[in-house]
Amino acid sequence: MNLSKSEIINLLPHREPMLLIEELKDIKKLHSATAVMNVKKNAFYVQGHFPNQPVMPGVFIVEAFGQAAAALTAHGIDKKTYENKLVFLMSVEKARFRNPVIPDCKLELKIEAVRSHGRVWKYKGEAFVEGKKMADALWSATIVDRK
């Protein structure tokens, strides 16, 4: 099963320019998925980072991991449980940036839900460009009421 960008927009509160993921594919309900992010030279987060040698900031890789995990979770749980809720990042552990992500490329984010306890979820992810590992992380998020 795959989700298009328009379907992701229906699940997440993020909007341009902060909606980073384009597609969620290979979805295993509430377990794992792969998100696709097209990293462009003209993206706002690249333009000043760094002039003449653009690199995607690592914090945006972590944000893309979080968006992919939120979409996976929102897609898998009962819509009534998720209505009027937001997913907030709680912690980031063991984030490693192994290789710089250079625009223009397709970043694939393989994510997995490690466990959940009530409204708290723990995830792990790996980011790849053309099969080469660029980053990995372990993080936690919580589902909260929208105010």
Instruction: Report, as a whole number of angstroms, the end-to-end distance.
Output: 32 Å
Low-confidence parts: none
- The tally of beta strands, per DSSP, is 6
Provide the CATH superfamily: Hotdog Thioesterase
Give a short account of the largest sheet: 6 strands, antiparallel
The name of the CATH topology is Thiol Ester Dehydrase, Chain A
What proportion of the residues form beta strands (DSSP E)?
35-45%
What are the defining features of this structure?
147 residues, alpha+beta, Thiol Ester Dehydrase, Chain A, 20% helix, globular
Describe the structure.
It contains three helices and six strands; from the N terminus they run H-E-E-H-H-E-E-E-E. The model has no long low-confidence stretch (mean pLDDT 94). With 147 residues, the protein is of the alpha+beta class. It has helices at residues 5-11, 58-76, 79-82; strands at residues 23-28, 32-39, 85-97, 105-117, 120-129, 132-145. A hairpin with a 2-residue loop joins strand 5 (120-129) and strand 6. The protein has one domain: Thiol Ester Dehydrase, Chain A. 20% of the residues lie in helices and 44% in strands. A six-stranded antiparallel sheet has the order 1-2-4-5-6-3, with helices on one face. It is globular, with a radius of gyration of 15 Å.
Write the layout of secondary structure elements.
Blueprint: H1 5-11, E1 23-28, E2 32-39, H2 58-76, H3 79-82, E3 85-97, E4 105-117, E5 120-129, E6 132-145
Antiparallel strand pairs: 1-2, 2-4, 3-6, 4-5, 5-6
